[in-house]
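Collaboration report, partner site 2.

Our partner group contributed sequences for two proteins of shared interest, and the home lab folded both. The records are reproduced in the order in which they were received, starting with the first partner submission.
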Amino acid sequence: MTTYKRVLLKLSGESLMGDQAYGIDQERLNDYAVQIKEAVALGVQIGIVIGGGNIFRGLSGAAKGFDRVKGDQMGMLATVINSLALNSALTANGVKSRVLTAIRMEPVGEFYSKDKAIETLERGEVAIFSAGTGNPYFTTDTGSSLRGIEIEADAMLKGTRVDGIYTADPEKDPTATKFDRISFDEIYHQGLKVMDLTATTMCKENNLPVVVFNMDKKGNLLKVLSGEDIGTLVHV
């Protein structure tokens, strides 16, 4: 038995780099595909959003002189590249999946709609949502929140490089302590950078819990789905 029947899994684009400085590490990509395959085998319906930071990040581009809208559009296309890569890796592992894009770009992917997404999930296929919300000024965290709410997910699982939410960045501050549970309001008041404020507000207002965990450790996705207390649960 699993704790969640339908989830929105948010994957970090940076994590796809593995030990590389840029791009997609094939071993890390396959690790993700294998973990997702194990979850699908349990009957869990999975929608996925992948960031594009391993290829291009709109905010970083704007800081270097790119027009913000163009930079964000480039970032959206980066998420499509990562989505296609995951789609290919899942196929190689015998898992059916479908790439749905927030911007029309057939035949690269099908144009997103809620009905199409839920039909995909109910067939037992993985739905990969790419190109963010299709609009500039919105992050992939916000895109994840939106898609999670739309597909009526039980939770949003935010796979990162760290094993939960800390009082400070554990990679920079060795005295940082981890939260097992924390409310959305506490995240606001403590100024913790878990997601951007738009994404956090959407999850709170629509009662979508978030679990932050280390996706780079093999087997962790299954542990989260089985209700093990790893990572940090963000609740209303």
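Second partner submission, folded after the first:
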Amino acid sequence: MTSLTVGHINFNLEQVNQQFQQAEANQIVKWATATFGQGLAMSTSFGIHSAVMLHMVTVVVPDIPVIWVDTGYLPSKTYIFAEELTQRLNLNLKVYQSPISPARMEALYGRLWSQEDVESLNRYDQIRKVEPMQRALKELNVTAWIAGLRSDQTDHRKTLNPVSLQGSIYKILPILNWNSRTIYEYLVAHDLPYHPFFDEGYVTVGDWHSSRPLTALDDNERDTRFNGLKQECGLHLPQTLAESESLDSSLL
């Protein structure tokens, strides 16, 4: 069993995960707050059901830094939805973007998202998503990162635990075991909005060029992203030294 020390707090990772298998999501958030204190941050994509995590976490930690990686390619309705939620929940929003503008990236590398090969998509994700997120975590001195991943979303996410290490940062996943019904019930109970694209048939939404509505032919909701070529953008996969040398699809 692995015993870990964070600051002055010592905890057993296996024991904590066993305890959290049956825990309420807000209990996990409260534990993370007590354990990591000022080192705690959360991320959001302002996606279909982002209001759930934003509400749940800020009820417990109102001033928690909320990291939003703005790729510069989000739909206009996402920007409006983000502004409305930020005002309604009084979010301590921290917006990060790539230092390479969309126009500059396209001039240097072409429209990476339209080239329909995994290597190009990985380069796009590294430039527009992974690098800004890693910079945010470093600049904000984050030691633990709360995210709204669910095990029913991708094959990789089925393997996750409520608490884990991603590189040198702890990942906290309070709603890992939730499903679509649980999400819906929380939205209704707290009178929270969902992304307007939900009414247009979207079950997940990212950049305007790599998201589409769900169809009867899709086996998984994540097939509606990245032209079905990949399930993960890289933000929620282990960061290793090899990543700086290669954009291998097993990493991103």
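Feedback sent to the partner group on the second submission included the following. The chain has a mean pLDDT of 83. Residues 96 and 135 are 8 Å apart (CA to CA).
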